[in-house]
Design goal:
The protein is mostly beta strands. It has one domain. The chain has no helices and seven strands. It has a seven-stranded antiparallel beta sheet with strand order 1-2-3-4-5-6-7, with no helix packed on it.
């Protein structure tokens, strides 16, 4: 089951009775985070950074409290 905001963007996805994925957007409507929860406890989170032109240049993943940070080189525009 999907939940959507007034703009039609997915805000929550029910993957099972115990597991849900939550989506967050910035003021430009770009996806900035998604978090998967099991029994209301976060399993992992992915956060996205964008440059001024809306190109994603960084992905930060947190799994089991460990941070994995990936930055794409050659992103266009200024950050």
């Amino acid at each position: 089951m999907l939940e959507r905001d007034a703009l039609g963007r997915t805000t929550r996805e029910h993957l099972s009775p115990q597991v849900q994925r939550q989506f967050e957007y910035d003021g430009r409507g770009l996806l900035i985070a998604q978090t998967v929860f099991a029994d209301a406890a976060p399993l992992f989170e992915m956060r996205y950074d964008y440059d001024r032109t809306g190109n994603r240049y960084r992905l930060k993943e947190t799994k089991n409290r460990n941070l994995f940070d990936t930055e794409r080189s050659g992103a266009s525009g200024s950050k």
